[in-house]
Design a protein that fits this description.
By secondary structure, the protein is an all-alpha fold. It has 20 helices and two strands.
Length: 330
DNA sequence: AGACGTTGAGAATGAGGAAA
DNA sequence: TTTCCTCATTCTCAACGTCT
């Protein structure tokens, strides 16, 4: 450990390391022979001095986590000792290894979280995100997922141990960090209904409100019945939200849907009872119609293209084209 | 005497709800 | 989005009891 260059006044007189040093010096110089004899000089309670002297008994794997050994207080030693006694040293060391915390130095608070197993959550969330830490750190902090990943990365790296500290460091509002983490913790079945870029704060907040209102189980039941953005192109976040919200139409309104010709060659008219509802799905409907048209146009254009440039290419090569590309008999 | 555990008061800090 | 407020948690400091 490198010696501290801080002014003495910035070193808490509760510092276990400092207390242990002073106590040992006093012992060596014959100033006192017992802990009680040192209390008035060191200005600490007997309990704190006792804990301070136990600092060196903590395993190196734990001590190595601290960014600043001088900052370790009796409270910190006490919590660690209590956790080790309660959960077992094997469990605690296992948590440290699993959290991946050994690669970095951490604040007192962060170490307590790691020792108590609270930091494992961040490690898990980070693994689930499946992203390279370098990429996470480089991404713009716009989408909830990006902010959540960055938060968990910071917790794992020991950069911060709270939403507030993370928010301050990243220049993001504290509330956004907290909401982003909550959104990221929504079940996959719900999150995966949306393209990543469509799961914005606005959408995520409505999902969180829905989860509070319905409960997780009901939300999952509904999510299973909803088509995702991947299932059908053109679906909007608003469509999915309204379906999760069970703003369904009555079967009777749905029975009569007709498409007929409008005025001129360029118009089709869709008739139904609840046009407002169908209007919300215009994006999905348009995409579906475009898909149908595109298939026909692509076939025709490709055939024309092949005919036009057929002489340039080897005719045998053209003959090997799949039959689907063959012009339909007219 | 010393180690260890428990409890409690009060300050500091963090999180989340509500309103502007 | 920001600010204010409340509640919960963490931390410091102190006191006390039990056991060896």
């Amino acid at each position: 450990m490198k010696p501290s260059k801080r002014p003495y006044r910035l070193i808490s007189r509760r510092s276990c390391l400092r207390l242990a040093q002073l106590y040992q010096e006093g012992l060596n110089e014959g100033k006192w022979k017992t802990q009680l004899g040192a209390l008035s000089t060191l200005r600490v309670s007997q309990g704190d001095l006792s804990l301070a002297l136990q600092l060196h008994e903590l395993p190196d794997e734990i001590l190595d986590l601290f960014d600043d050994l001088i900052g370790i207080s009796s409270h910190t030693v006490r919590v660690i000792r209590h956790t080790v006694i309660h959960d077992g040293i094997k469990t605690v060391l296992g948590r440290i290894r699993q959290s991946g915390a050994t690669n970095a130095k951490h604040s007192n608070k962060a170490v307590l979280k790691i020792v108590k197993g609270h930091a494992l959550n961040s490690k898990t969330m980070l693994r689930w995100s499946g992203q390279d830490p370098v990429k996470i750190a480089a991404r713009a902090l716009d989408l909830p997922k990006n902010i959540s990943d960055r938060y968990h990365l910071g917790v794992t790296n020991g950069e911060w141990a709270s939403f507030s500290a993370c928010a301050k460091a990243l220049g993001v509002s504290r509330r956004n960090v907290s909401v982003a983490v909550s959104i990221r913790e929504l079940p996959d079945a719900v999150r995966h209904l949306f393209y990543e870029t469509d799961l914005t704060f606005a959408v995520g907040k409505r999902l969180l409100a829905l989860k509070d209102e319905l409960g997780l189980d009901e939300m999952l039941v509904r999510a299973r019945c909803v088509e995702s953005m991947f299932d059908a192109s053109g679906r909007t976040a608003a469509n999915i939200l309204s379906e999760l919200n069970a703003e369904n139409i009555r079967p009777s309104t749905f029975t009569r849907v007709r498409i007929r010709k409008g005025r001129g060659r360029n118009r089709l008219v869709i008739e139904c009872k609840d046009s407002e509802l169908l209007w919300r799905y215009r994006n999905e409907i348009e995409k579906s119609i475009t898909k149908v048209l595109k298939k026909r146009i692509t076939d025709a254009e490709l055939v024309q293209f092949l005919r036009q440039f057929g002489s340039i290419f080897d005719k045998a090569h053209l003959a090997r084209l799949p039959s689907t590309f063959a012009p339909r008999p007219s």
